[in-house]
Amino acid sequence: MPEKILIVTGDAAESLEVLYPYQRLLEEGYEVDIAAPERKTLRFVVHDFEPGYDTYTEKPGYTLPADLAFSEVDPGDYIALVIPGGRAPEYLRNNAELRKIVGAFFSADRPVAQICHGPLITAATGSLSGRRVTAYPALEPDMQSAGAEFQDTEAVVDGLLVSSRAWPDHPGWMREFLKVLRSSNRSS
Fold this sequence. Notes:
Blueprint: E1 4-8, H1 15-27, E2 31-36, E3 41-48, E4 57-65, E5 68-69, E6 80-83, H2 88-92, H3 96-107, E7 112-115, H4 119-124, E8 132-133, H5 140-145, E9 149-150, E10 155-158, E11 161-164, H6 170-186
Parallel strand pairs: 1-2, 1-6, 2-5, 6-7, 7-11, 8-9
Antiparallel strand pairs: 3-4, 10-11
């Protein structure tokens, strides 16, 4: 039976930041479930970087059904957690069920991958204090307020936590996360 990995997300998540780890982890032979506030078809967005804009732009993206509602998730069923970015983390961090799920992964010392605005969720659980992380660069003050040391680089590994800035950093992010997964789960 394949090992299971959980992706937690919601509407307005960045399409690539959900789909890339989802497909990459399936390719590696993991079973991957997507959990959201409720079981429904999620509507993602595309964030792009265009000349002349001071920040990223947003366009409608792909859709994908959530396999589970947060209330149905048993964190003990999963070996690792992935937290994509986009706008979803801005409201998801207020979801008590999700904060319990994320807290359970940190309490059990299981691998967590976060990208872009995803660290807003881990910050809301108090799980970043004393850690080294990266995130979308505009979140540097948020990461520092959460007690983390912010590093503006492709991927930061701090124990079993792997963070990244945004979808252009996917290769480095997933390369480092897969190393963490292999060393923490498959060798035992």
